Amino acid sequence: MAYKVAVLPGDYIGPEVMKEALKVLKAVSKKHKIDLEFNEALVGGAAWDKYGKHLPDETLELCKNSDAILFGSVGGPPSEELLPKWIGVAGNSLLKIRKEFDLYANLRPARLLPALSSASPLKTELAEKGFDILVVRELTSGIYFGQPRGREGTGDEEKAFDTMVYSRREIARVAHVAFKAAQARRKKLTSVDKANVLTSMVFWREVVEEVAKQYPDVTYEPMYVDNATIQLVRDPSQFDVMLAGNMFGDIVSDEAVGITGSLGMGASASLAEGTFGMYEPSGGSAPDIAGKGIANPIAQILSGAMMLRYSFNLPAEANAIEKAVDEVIAEGTVRTSDLGGTSSTSEMGDAITANL
Q1: Which of the residues 3, 144, 215, 220 is marked catalytic?
Q2: Does the active-site annotation cover 254?
Q3: Which residue out of 193, 240, 250, 338 is catalytically annotated?
Q4: Does residue 1 surpass a pLDDT of 80?
Q5: Among 135, 231, 248, 299, which has the highest number of CB atoms less than 10 A from its own CB?
Q6: Is 144 in the active site?
Q7: Three-state secondary structure readout of 294-321
Q8: What is the pLDDT of residue 283?
């Protein structure tokens, strides 16, 4: 059977790193005799230039007729963020796709490879220990989607507000994803919240603890978000799976990837019920380095591997890509500038493809 993939490269470095991910995926499909059908469409600022909107109907329709979405990145330079082309670009494209397909569970792995310990901002003794963390972030509720939200009033009385809202079902379903992931890993789960202040987080902790009782083989601990961010840089090896709501998960997952040495290593999977998912790197569109051929494509490549694993149930093929990435990094002769090397985006993609 053919697996249909909607390819949405997006803006700035998005198309550059997407090219390398497709190169690797095509090599895997040829070697392992799997049928991957790639269909490309515009999103973000690239879509605005042609359609005057960030998520054209044609793009959304392609996604609906596909088995998975391989997403690049959207967004423009800070100096242009108030231009119509960029205002609300993430909300009008990325967040809209997440909500449209109910992509409620965001999986973001963060591994520090031994060969990259010197690139990590952690103290040497911590970096050499390494770590392997999976952040599971609730993605379609919480403060990013809660109502009411807006601005009102004038002068000194003008105010803006967002609302954090969670239902029992929304918390429980992402908690089950996280506990099942922990069962397949090192059987430890840390739930990140702010239950000492926020009513919604008291509720979050209550529901997660109810779910935890169904997984007696998993060691469960709650942790306040401020402490969690401290512990991540104090000793990240203590964590296995970290579960968090939308906003805290956004922050914690970026920190976890950041201490690996580069956001260019951060892949992610955003999953719906069943097998449909969207797969994207976490580093953003990076306008400052676009067009220079120096962007690290590994996050996009590893996102493709996650697509094979979670949407297409092809773990051997996903493992092959991840193994190739690890071996190229360990060998050390091909690295992009964010990893301390001088290799180009295409050279990194070529090296991983050749390893396969």
Answers
A1: 144
A2: yes
A3: 250
A4: no
A5: 135
A6: yes
A7: CCCCHHHHHHHHHHHHHCCCCHHHHHHH
A8: 83
